[in-house]
Design goal:
The protein is of the alpha/beta class. The protein contains 30 helices and 31 strands. It has a 17-stranded parallel β-sheet, with helices on one face. Keywords: Nucleotide-binding, Plant defense, Repeat.
């Protein structure tokens, strides 16, 4: 991780503020000297990082380099803070020596000189490690041993295989199809069973009969292209002694040509197992006739989705699934309890313990195999219970834990998963480790995560790239490398939430701890600290799992350099963690170098955010979302580095002091205002130069023409406006076209305005994917059909929708999700043939007055999920539902008993839903009286 820290610090040194710092007398040269020393060491740190786990001296050296880089960053930021305290204007965008006195200048020069000397000493020590020779010669025996352990021999077939039969048949069929894909790739995280599945396919009877010759090669992380191509050729042609000698004398290009021709002339199956990078494939692809008609095929296994796509854009990508509970137990029992002669009581006790331990494997075959292999050597219930008490360590290490177990090496799951971590570029290592902040089993909002990465300085982008896009690409790459798992997708198919596999999270926490990247504090009701920091701390995650009264982290010197402070409240939302004014002011005074403050779901004394918040001049991310705060102090205007500000609250009306509060925040990119704030009629002004503003939520306007104030904010992607009573103000419409806007919300419930009077706002956003309209709707004009990208539409509080409105909705060309709530439909609702052609999810909540519903044949032909809740006037599910063969899920909630009884087997409407895989009926309401 030292490589990542040094890289981030060096990038910070190139920023404008540090460039100006260098110009100061007696300081600039010392900064440049430290920068140069770090740049020299940066080239060697990747190798040193990889070797530190087995060399204590290198481990200490790497930690020292990391801390020296952090110290340099701390000194410069502390100095800037002192300068900031003497300025009234925006000191972090430019400053001169006017306020810098000789004492401060001498002190920073002395501190930087001390660190430069330390870095120079570390640089000279580095030469003794001979890292460059190791990298060039490939002579490190550890890497050689690691490579040998990863080789999979195709003739050795795993005797314990569960859950792969269907995948084996599917892949075997694809490989022998005449016009099938040229490359079939098996992609997934380490330990998921990719190689095991490939072996099953390799030995499949149809495969053996179809192909003439076979080759299986295992690729190391340092791919030697000539040797790999030579090995494949040798296995395919079974050469004579003379041919072996000829091949030995050939260069890479000649071997590649021979291999190419062999695959054109014969039906060959080549299995390339465990290939890591696009460069590795590109070094090999000259040996494969990818652009010619041939019956030869490639079966490839990889942890990196990008590699599979690179090998063949038209190839087939298969991701093995994790084992379910029954399959996990079947595999576990085969290994741990195979052939065991025991009585039923002992068997049941072992099954109970085994089932509990399997929860930690989360269906990962390697983890199950490691655990079961250990328990197969343990006979008594006490021995099984001991493993159960330390199950993570046993799975991770795969050994019997003793006093010196750390010296026995990686024999379990950890070493295999750690290979994926070691293979990450430095910027992805930091992004991955940041996930250790979040609580176990937490579904992490991608929108929040990517903003946190940006605030931390992990994300850099070229002039043509948008930081948000780069940040999302980093997440996508972690998903593609099987380090992070996808939770939910949004309406535009982008990743909405993500999480870590339990064992990957275990690795993440371990690496974060080893690199002093993060400290986590868990508080119970008794305020007991279960894990306390040691050494200088730069990131703190506070997990609060029970209601408590405010505490103070104390004046510990280790906390003086904290850059990120994230609170996670894991209690019922109606309970809060209470902060009194004194403790909160203390926190805001002591943590002056903070870049990130996530302070959500908190109960604050006097419901006010203290004025000391203005001390945090380095803050890039501030969220007080859903905290009990009624007022924001004017000192928040000092936070001129803010990128993200989240003031949303579903509980209280918030007072925002004046319209110019955000006018100096030139770096602002995302602002979320509370849905209810006093002074709504005050038009809040943003910094004129905040041209990168991407998100503005809950901004109050009188009419769409007020958006003309946003003339420079043409990069907006998400906009939420609340229209309040404009009196006699005439609606003119806005002259701006927001061509980058993807998400729009218009709330006119408090204005008395009807659509289409505020339709001008919608039509000024031609490329939106998501649209939410809250309030009365008089008309839905045909002009809405120009929204060709609209995939998600939410209507709430809409009064009466007419038949003509429904006709417009049916024709929206890309609509996939429709949510309608708290409104009225026509009494006889008809969905026309061909209407809603791409709609996948329809949700109707508290919709009144429509009694009969008919779906004509050919309507809603893509519908997968239907949700009906508290539509108490509706008499039955729609006629024609039986024709929608795509429907997989029907949820009925809060509907009348007579409605629900028609859906049961033998009921009047059962024939309409009998093809639906999942029907859920809950919270049945009583029938109408009489």
């Amino acid at each position: 991780m030292a490589e990542a820290v040094v890289s981030i610090v060096l990038e910070g040194l190139s920023k404008l503020i540090i460039q100006e710092l260098k110009s100061l007398v007696r300081v600039g040269g010392k900064v440049l000297s430290a920068q140069t020393q770090l740049q020299i060491m940066q080239a060697y740190l990747k190798d040193a990082d990889a070797r530190q786990g087995r060399n204590e001296v290198i481990r200490i050296w790497v930690a020292s380099v990391r801390d020296a880089a952090y110290d340099l960053d701390d000194i410069i930021e502390t100095f800037v803070l002192k300068v900031a305290s003497k300025r009234k204007a925006s000191v972090l965008t430019r400053f001169t020596g006017l306020f810098i006195n000789g004492v401060n200048l001498h002190r920073i020069g002395s501190d930087i000189e001390k660190i430069t000397t330390e870095i120079s000493l570390l640089s000279s020590i580095m030469q003794s490690f001979k890292l460059d020779q190791t990298r060039e010669s490939g002579g490190d025996t550890f890497f050689q041993r690691q490579k040998e352990r990863r080789i999979a021999y195709p003739h050795i077939v795993d005797p314990h295989v569960v859950g792969l039969a269907r995948g084996t048949e599917e892949l075997a069929t694809l490989l022998i199809e005449k016009n099938g894909p040229r490359v079939v790739s098996i992609w997934g995280m380490g330990g998921l069973g990719k190689t095991t599945l490939a072996k099953q396919v390799y030995h499949h009877g149809d495969i053996k009969r179809h192909f003439d010759c076979f080759a299986w090669v295992c690729i190391s992380q340092q791919c030697q292209a000539r040797e790999v191509l030579k090995e494949i050729l040798t296995k395919l042609i079974s050469p004579t002694n003379e041919q072996r000698q000829e091949i030995a004398d050939l260069g890479k290009d000649q071997i590649a040509e021979w291999l190419w021709n062999t695959q054109r002339e014969r039906r060959c199956l080549v299995v390339i197992d465990d290939i890591w990078t696009r460069d590795a494939w590109r070094s090999l692809e000259a040996g494969f006739p990818m652009n010619e008609e041939t019956e030869s095929r490639i079966l490839l296994t990889t942890r990196n989705k990008e590699v599979a796509s690179c090998a063949d854009k038209n190839g087939f990508l298969f991701e093995p699934r994790s084992l379910n509970d029954d399959e996990s137990w079947e595999l576990f029992e085969k290994i741990a309890m195979f052939g065991e002669d025991t009585n039923s009581k002992i068997y049941e006790q072992k099954k109970e313990l085994g089932t509990k331990m399997l929860q930690h494997c989360k269906g990962l075959p390697l983890a199950i195999t490691v655990l079961a292999g250990l328990l197969a050597r343990k006979e008594t219930i006490d021995e099984w219970d001991m493993v159960h008490k330390n199950v993570y360590e046993y799975i991770r290490r795969g050994i019997d834990l003793g006093p010196d177990y750390k010296d026995e090496g990686y024999e379990g799951v950890s070493w295999l998963l750690e290979l994926s971590y070691d293979n990450l570029p430095y910027y992805l290592k930091l992004c991955f480790l940041y996930l250790a902040h979040f609580p176990e089993d937490c579904e992490i909002p991608v929108s929040t995560l990517t903003k946190l990465w940006m605030a931390e300085g992990f994300i850099s982008s070229a002039a043509v790239e948008v930081m948000e896009d780069v940040s999302y690409m980093c997440l996508s790459e972690l998903v593609g490398r099987c380090m992070v798992q996808v939770g939910k997708h949004g309406s535009s198919k982008k990743i909405k939430t993500c999480h870590l596999h339990d064992l990957m999270r275990d690795l993440c926490i371990l690496k974060a701890k080893e690199g002093n990247f993060l400290r986590t504090i868990n508080y119970s009701a008794s305020l007991e600290i279960k894990q306390t920091p040691n050494g200088r701390v730069r990131r703190l995650a506070i997990h609060l799992d029970k209601m408590f009264e405010a505490y103070c982290l104390g004046r510990d010197e280790n906390y003086g350099y904290v850059r990120s402070l994230l609170y996670f409240v894991q209690v019922d939302p109606y309970y809060y963690c209470y902060w009194n004014s004194k403790e909160l002011r203390s926190l805001l005074r002591d943590f002056t170098l903070l870049r990130v403050l996530k302070f959500e779901e908190m109960n604050v004394s006097k419901s006010k955010l203290p004025g000391e918040i203005g001390n945090l001049v380095h803050l890039r991310f501030l969220s007080v979302k859903n905290s009990l705060i009624e007022a924001v102090p004017s000192s928040i205007a000092k936070l001129v580095c803010l990128q993200t500000l989240d003031l949303r609250s579903r509980y209280l009306r918030m007072k925002i002091p004046n319209q110019n509060l955000f006018s100096k925040m030139e770096k602002l990119r995302h602002i979320y205002l509370p849905s209810r704030y006093s002074g709504r009629e005050k038009r809040l002004l943003f910094a004129i130069e905040a041209v990168n503003l991407h998100t503005v939520v809950n901004i109050g306007i009188q009419a769409s023409s007020d958006l003309d104030d946003f003339v420079k904010l043409t990069n907006l992607r998400k906009l939420g406006v609340m229209i309040f009573d404009g009196g006699e103000k005439k609606e003119k419409g806005t002259n701006i076209i927001f061509k980058h806007l993807h998400s729009l919300s218009v709330d006119s419930r408090l204005s008395g305005l009807l659509m289409p009077r505020n339709i001008n706002i919608v039509l000024s956003c031609p490329n939106i994917y998501k649209l939410k309209l809250l309030g009365e709707i008089a008309e839905l004009p045909e002009e809405l059909l120009c929204l060709t990208n609209l995939t998600k539409l939410t209507l709430s509080g809409f009064g009466n929708l007419k038949d003509d409105h429904i006709k417009v909705l049916e024709k929206l060309p890309s609509l996939r999700m429709l949510f309608a709530s708290f409104g009225k439909f026509p009494a006889h609702l008809v969905c026309s043939e061909g209407g809603f052609p791409f709609l996948e999810f329809l949700s109707l909540d508290f919709v009144e007055e429509f009694k009969e519903w008919k779906v004509e044949k050919g309507a809603m032909r893509s519908l997968c999920r239907l949700h009906i809740e508290h539509c108490l006037d509706l008499e039955a599910v729609p006629d024609g539902l039986q024709y929608i063969t795509t429907l997989k899920e029907l949820t009925i909630k809060g509907m009348r008993s007579e409605f629900c009884s028609r859906l049961g087997e033998g009921g009047k409407d059962f024939y309409k839903i009998q093809h639906v895989q999942s029907v859920i009926i809950t919270n049945i309401s009583p029938n109408r009286p009489g």
